[in-house]
Amino acid sequence: MFNIISIIIGHINQKIAAIGISAGVAVAFTNVVARYAFDASLVWATELTIFLFLWSVFFGAAYCFKKDAHIAVTVVLDIVPSRIAKIMLFVSHMVTFIFLSTISYYGYHYMLLIQELEEKSIDLWDLPMEYVYAVIPISFAFGAYRVAERIIVIIKTPHDKIVNLSEAQMVLSELGVKSDDTTNKNVKELNDMVKEVEKKTGGLL
Questions:
Q1: Is 171 left (phi over 0), alpha (psi -120 to 50) or beta?
Q2: pLDDT reading at 112 higher than 70
């Protein structure tokens, strides 16, 4: 059940982010061509481009929670005992979950207020603005769900393995490179390079 929900949310986030950015670029490009080549600017293009980019960014950010791709500074986690690191990770994810859930909740009520006020778009053929503002409660709820998944993983993971892999090493793992393969010279050199870069960037690789 939860796996199905996770897959559906992932597809929604990915598709909306991809379609939003692609359509936004296409509309903006078309408007630029129309303006400079034909001296006929599209009145609705600017507002539509903004809305498409907004939906793309919000759902793209929600998708990044699944990939754990948001910037995280792990310097402190690397120097504290693993038990403390696990507690810190749990607390930080709980704060994130509460924040995202709160924004989603109040975003939903704000959307209802916009609907009650019957606010409509000026340039997009009287499009009801609640459809545009719906991006806030939906995308933040998806993000909160992803963080909840991470919290469960943190709880189930033993403290001695909770920060065993850095973000960069997890990326290498997804690419099929085993970070614990010490027999492969190339892998060992790659891991040494990753660790050296992380030291110089403070974990912001």
A1: alpha
A2: yes
| Amino acid in position 119 | E
Task: Please state, in angstroms and rounded to a whole number, the distance separating the CA atoms of residues 184 and 171.
Answer: 18
**Residues in contact with 86: Cβ distance below 8 Å, sequence separation at least 6, in sequence order:** 154, 157, 159, 162, 163
Nearest alpha-carbon partner for 17 in 143, 122, 114: 143
- Domain residue extents for the chain: 2-164, 165-205
Q: Which two tokens stand for residue 98?
A: 């509460």
Structure confidence by residue, pLDDT tens digits, 89-107 = 888 889 989 999 999 999 9
pLDDT at residue number 15: 84
As beta bridge partners, residue 128 has 120
Check: CB of residue 129 under 8 Å from CB of residue 119.
yes
